[in-house]
Write a structure and sequence with these properties.
heterodimer, A: 294 residues, mainly alpha, MetI-like fold, globular, B: 281 residues
Chain lengths: 294, 281
């Protein structure tokens, strides 16, 4: 790793400078993470008096637990829908905004601010909108013959959290797609236009292929977002219900730790989540490296 | 643009306006609901603002929802502000210092320090919920502003960004400073930090939003109502047991909870966009 050619020399100052960051990292990140690893191979009896080493038993139990596997599937479906919906909408809007030269900034202003709304607050807003008795969206659905009730219907509840999560994330995706589109050289577009390619054709043959690195990057970011940052949406609105239909993994690990008080299982779940984050981060960095060469 | 087709232009604007409208709609309705009485909200679907705005906002700010056991929102807003600012300034400060050390000094364990900081990227709170809670509990930091903010102020992203930026600062500046007899701290304070102004501001926007919008962490470390933050407190109001939720007050709270970060993002839009793209690079 590089430093400056010209550096300062001091015996203890650099250690002092990195100390606060390192201390916080060790105390609040590394140590708890290693505790999770450690606890994931232990089993504690109901009174917390005795702990024994059980090897990978907690993991074996976890992956034989239908509830956990169900939660896994729920999370994957949920993340795929959040990423798909928010990226699809963002792409359409970005393509439109890219073509509108003069008012692009105005539209950007109108579209970026949902990013600032907390996931939990976004959840509450959409919850109100879809409230079966007083929500206007539920009312509109009722008018076209759909009986919306996210308190009883798992599909409705899932739709609700997907919309709330995607709504906020569209802003983020929009900014990156717009930046990606604006980085495409005008000469390419013009050459294609002279050759007779219309806007739709140009989108499929020029813009979309050139956007694919951005899109790939955004897929990873969106999946990470849906996996780890939308706890608030689930907790503030559906609380995992109805039944267990909207229990995403992060919600489950929290519930098992603080309401189920199941330490071993919760720790094992933490470890699984850690593996997922590490894998996703690795993919992301892999991509970033590739882009540098590209 | 390459060609001019009036129809296409109309379609574009229509799509964008529709998109923007869909985006604003939930907030608009929340605002509308926050200006009516409970009865009006529960009976019909008012689409235009009512005249109860001041009453409702005064109620939530001053009294909160006593039935739901929620403290006054004024207090929660203050807690959120303290937490968000502590997290933001904390992250900026320790990241500036550590990237300065990593870029401008050669010392044993430098690379190790870098990787230790890097690892925090892979360990969000969500994957180590219980053990982190235990650490904070053992340190006696539950129900305190320190507990709300300090565990969150390690920042790999900010450190990377500053490191990246410091690498582009010309060496001549360092040499000149050294020739003039400036020590490392003087160089840091009088040259490096002023040069990083734009980066600091851009990160400020992003980190402030991050801090303000924390949900899981405050939920874990606060049981004392006087430390509730508004983003996590709103959930208590919405899930007030058997009673009919008081939507007009919940929506007033939602508006108050989303206003500060939205104002920050709109006021500092240029910096925000720049910061976001930089951070991900």
């Amino acid at each position: 790793m590089r430093t400056k050619k010209v550096t300062f020399r001091h015996r203890w100052l650099p250690y002092l400078l990195v100390a606060p960051q390192i201390a916080i990292t060790l105390v609040f990140f590394i140590w708890p993470a290693s505790q999770a690893l450690y606890q994931s191979v232990l089993r504690q009896d109901a009174f917390g008096l005795k702990t024994e080493f059980v090897g990978l038993a907690n993991f074996a139990k976890l992956f034989n637990d239908p509830l956990y596997l169900e939660s896994f599937v729920t999370t994957v479906v949920y993340s795929a829908m959040v990423a798909g919906l928010s990226m699809g909408v963002a792409l359409v809007l970005a393509v439109m905004a890219d073509r509108v030269v003069r008012q692009a900034t105005t539209y950007r202003t109108l579209l970026i601010w949902p990013y600032a709304v907390a996931p939990a607050v976004a959840g509450v807003l959409w919850w109100f909108l879809f409230n079966p008795t007083i929500g206007i969206a539920a009312y509109a659905l009722d008018a076209v013959g759909y009986d919306w009730n996210h308190y009883q219907d798992g599909g409705d509840a899932m739709t609700l959290i997907v919309i709330a999560a995607a709504w906020r994330q569209v802003s983020y995706n929009f900014l990156f797609f717009l930046a990606g589109l604006q980085a495409i050289p005008r000469s390419l577009t013009e050459a294609a236009a002279i050759d007779g390619a219309g806007p739709v054709k140009r989108f499929w043959t020029i813009q979309l292929p050139l956007l694919s690195p951005t899109a790939f990057f955004l897929v990873v970011v969106n999946v990470v977002y849906a996996f780890f940052e939308t706890f608030g949406i689930v907790h503030a609105t559906t609380s995992g219900g109805p039944g267990n239909d909207t229990v995403i993994l992060v919600y489950k690990v929290w519930r098992d730790a603080f309401e189920g008080l199941n330490l071993g299982s919760s720790a094992a779940q933490s470890v699984v989540l850690m593996v997922i984050v590490i894998a996703l981060t690795a993919i992301q960095f892999r991509y970033l490296e590739n882009r540098v060469e590209y | 643009m390459v060609e001019r087709r009036p129809l296409l232009l109309v379609v574009q604007h229509a799509v964008l306006i529709l998109g923007a409208a869909v985006f604003v709609f939930p907030i608009y309705l929340a605002f509308v609901a926050s200006t009516h009485t409970a009865r009006e909200v529960n009976s019909g679907l008012p689409l235009l603002p009512g005249d109860q705005m001041w009453t409702n906002y005064a109620t939530v700010l001053g009294d909160g929802l006593s039935t739901a056991g929620a403290p006054p929102i004024g207090l929660m807003l203050m807690n959120s502000t303290i937490m968000a600012l502590a997290i933001t300034l904390g992250k900026l400060a320790i990241s500036l210092l550590s990237s300065f050390a990593i870029v401008y000094f050669r010392f044993p364990f430098r690379v190790l320090a870098f990787w230790t900081i890097f690892i925090t990227l892979m360990l969000p709170v969500e994957v180590r919920i219980l053990p982190t809670y235990e650490v904070v509990a053992q340190l006696g930091m539950l129900n305190s502003y320190a507990g709300l903010s300090i565990p969150l102020i390690a920042s790999a992203t900010a450190t990377f960004l500053f490191r990246q930026f410091f690498m582009t600062v010309p060496d001549e500046l360092t040499e000149a400073a050294r020739i003039d007899g400036a020590g490392p701290l003087k160089f840091f304070r009088d040259i490096l930090v002023p040069l990083s102004r734009t980066n600091i501001a851009a990160l400020f926007v992003i980190l402030f939003i991050y801090g303000w919008n924390q949900y899981l962490w405050p939920l874990l470390v606060t049981t004392d109502e006087s430390y509730y933050t508004v983003v996590m407190g709103i959930q208590r109001m919405a899930n007030a047991g058997e009673e009919t939720p008081q939507w007009h007050l919940i929506m007033s709270t939602a508006i108050l909870a989303l206003l500060p970060p939205v104002v920050v993002i709109l006021a500092m839009q240029r910096l925000f966009v720049r910061g976001l793209v930089e951070v991900e690079k």
